[in-house]
Amino acid sequence: MTVSILNIEQISLAFGGVKALTDVSFSVKKGSVFSIIGPNGAGKTSMLNCISGRYRPNSGKIIFDGKNVTDLRPNDRADLGMGRTFQNLALFGHMSVLDNIIVGRHHLLKNNWLTGPLYWVSGAQKEELAHRRKVEEIIDFLEISHIRKSIAGTLSYGLRKRVELARAMALNPKLILLDEPMAGMNLEEKEDMARYILDLNEEFGITVVMIEHDMGVVMDISHEVMVLDFGKKLICGLPDEVMADPYVKRAYLGLEEEEEDILQLEGVN
After folding, report:
1. 194 near 221, Cβ under 8 Å?
2. Structural contact between residues 59 and 12, judged by C-beta atoms closer than 8 angstroms
3. By CB count within 10 A, which of 14, 64, 82, 126 is most buried?
4. ABC transporter domain location, by residue (predicted)?
5. 196-208 pLDDT tens trace
């Protein structure tokens, strides 16, 4: 039986009188790609914000890697192995690509104000080299060596998305949360990003929870898909099962009930 790395138990979230999430429960298997889909305003990003710690739910529990992290801050969740990218880019635009990625390694440094003097005497150089090697591995993996010294704010949107993914990978995560990683990309950029997501899942063993509107990509690379609508879970299962659901057909394929009936009749005949 596959172990779950993330368990969401009856999460509810409200802003004033507006309910963003209502009793949502699901689990994500370790080593899988899990996608959350739904129309705008369905609560997808709110759910990611609850998982990452940006929002604290009104009720429910978030269990990550066997630990209850519901009340932990985002930094504490990062320390446990949770990475995140954002729908709107959150890079340091004035910094180089290399420096942006190195920032992602900051929480892994052993230095602090108490151990600082001893740290620099004993292990600074060795640790610095180890972090540099990891950063270079990520740069090679995402094929961004040619822009390593470029200022992040000057890059194209697609490349900035790739740099943000690199910074999330630099956290050395067990789980990575991707909020619309392909939004605003052209077809070639989407194909590249889909390949990187698959590879980081298969080669690095990182579990992925992803919000994405491109249904073709979602169905191609996901192991499981969950549909949210008005803050409630409608269906969760294998991609083919989800795509066979009448609601999903109407919402994402544009099929009306009459058209579905005709297609069913044609299939019978």
Report:
1. yes
2. yes
3. 82
4. 6-255
5. 999 999 998 999 9
* Same structural domain, 151 and 243: no
- Count the neighbouring beta carbons within 10 Å of the beta carbon of residue 77: 23
Confidence at 269, pLDDT banded by 50, 70, 90: very low
Rounded Cα gap, residues 128 and 109, in angstroms: 9
Rg (CA), the chain: 20
Do 62 and 183 share a domain, yes or no? yes
- Please count the structural domains in the chain: 2
- pLDDT (tens digit, 9 = 90+) per residue, 110-165? 554 445 555 555 555 566 676 788 888 999 999 999 998 999 888 888 888 888 88
Instruction: List the domain range (segments joined by +) for residue 183.
Output: 1-81+173-269
Q: Please identify, among 172, 207, 228, the residue that sits at the C-terminal boundary of a domain.
A: 172
Q: Is the pLDDT of residue 222 over 90?
A: yes
From the CB of residue 58, how many other CB atoms can be counted at a distance below 10 Å? 14
Nearest to 182 by CA among 87, 49, 104: 87
